[in-house]
Amino acid sequence: MKRAVCLLSGGLDSSTCLAVARRDGFEVYALTFDYGQRHRHEIAAARRVARELGAAQHLVMRVDLAAIGGSALTTPLPVPKDRPPEEIGAHIPVTYVPARNTVFLACALAWAETLETGDIFIGVNALDYSGYPDCRPEYIEAFERMANLATKAAVEGRMRVKIHTPLIGLSKAGIVRLALELGVDPAWTHSCYDPEPQGRPCGRCDACLLRRKGFAEAGVPDPLELRG
Amino acid sequence: MKRAVCLLSGGLDSSTCLAVARRDGFEVYALTFDYGQRHRHEIAAARRVARELGAAQHLVMRVDLAAIGGSALTTPLPVPKDRPPEEIGAHIPVTYVPARNTVFLACALAWAETLETGDIFIGVNALDYSGYPDCRPEYIEAFERMANLATKAAVEGRMRVKIHTPLIGLSKAGIVRLALELGVDPAWTHSCYDPEPQGRPCGRCDACLLRRKGFAEAGVPDPLELRG
């Protein structure tokens, strides 16, 4: 069975991405980061998703991005709330974590090489998104090119790095539909940047607003909202 | 004063690289990784080098590459000893750490962005080296290109990422000479992959052998050998 490393934050997008990798016949090695994020609740969600979707292994790796700071997700800076839809995605917001996907993909690449696979899945989306530069197709292509020069296995011709981005062209509603089609229960997932202590979503950050828009446009209820 | 992030392992090469950044007028932010390496003694050396060479800040960042494994530097695999010179560099050895420079440069990029600089120094060398793929000029160029698509500051035109590799074309003897010229005392540094418990170099791993070759060709004694 072919192996793949799948980045898994525990949000709806990365969980759906993992389900796509399973559907496509991969044995999935799920990789989650404990990086000092204020929404650590997502790590518990990631553990549940990995188990429910049958990941072969789930590694929660510590990378101390909070020591670097520069983001509302790793410092006490306030997380923006109640932003109008036209603002989300127009500018890169303070929830941007410097070079986060580059750090995450670099670690995924390291693990992929030890697993002797070049297949890496990441649930980035460049349509209904927060405007982060490291979610765009041109960035992903440049990472892939670099990765094929970076590793022993690629240089020796034993693997070819391929960064799979099955959600990149989907709307948030499309992701909701795909999730349901693939048996992902959105109740397992966690999207909120600034949850209450017990993990209940705030309902007002960009991540909550984008998620709500997706469910509304897909015409299905979000179990997290029903429960909230 | 212009700022730069400088990767600093505590070895002779990265210490010399840091000295070049200082000579070139940069305020240096030194970045060292505690990644589960067996030669943790290099972290103490890095602290000394950062202090002696006047780094503005020194961050020792934890990244758990040992959880991924795949290398003799992060697992109990034996470190090769007494390899003949013609073997070193001919094949990528088991001391290769999967995607290590990609992980390190990704973290350097994250810190650089929060420091509002695009200047990153790395002491890679593609001449007298162990044959690691992520030390070659084509890899560095591909990383730089990716980095300029990855970050908010680069995309918004506020910084241009430049990966400085001042040692890439030097022989090991050339690095020794440059180190002495710039006031780097080799006694501060630590190169050995497999030191004795008190940090004394083994004298037989690739890193020790390359270092010895460099000092011999430069015609100067290595204070670590004299002390050993």
Structure description:
Two copies of one chain form a homodimer. Chain A is an alpha/beta fold and 228 residues long. Chain A has a five-stranded parallel β-sheet with strand order 3-2-1-4-5, sandwiched between helices. Chain A has eight helices and five strands. Chain A has helices spanning 12-23, 41-52, 100-114, 137-150, 152-155, 172-181, 206-218, 223-227; strands spanning 3-7, 27-34, 57-62, 119-121, 162-164. The first copy, chain A, starts with a strand and ends with a helix. Chain A has a single domain, classed as Rossmann fold. In chain A, helix 1 packs across helix 6 (172-181) and helix 6 (172-181) crosses helix 7. The interface between A and B is large, with 45 and 45 residues.
List keywords for this structure.
5 strands; homodimer; five-stranded parallel sheet; globular; alpha/beta; Rossmann fold; 37% helix
Main β-sheet, spatial strand arrangement of chain A: 3-2-1-4-5
Total count of strands of chain A: 5
CATH architecture of chain A: 3-Layer(aba) Sandwich
Shape call of chain A:
globular
Overall mean pLDDT of chain A:
93
Radius of gyration of chain A: 17 Å
Describe the oligomeric state of these chains in a short phrase: homodimer
Helix and strand content put the structural class of chain A at: alpha/beta
Spans of chain A of 5+ residues with little confidence (pLDDT < 50)? Answer: none
Give the amount of beta strand of chain A, in percent.
5-15%
From the N-terminal CA to the C-terminal CA of chain A, the straight-line distance is 40 Å
Overall helicity of chain A: 25-40%
Order of helices and strands of chain A: EHEHEHEHHEHHH
The overall number of domains of chain A is: 1
What pair of chains forms the biggest interface?
Answer: A-B, 45 and 45 residues
Main beta sheet of chain A: strand number and arrangement? 5 strands, parallel
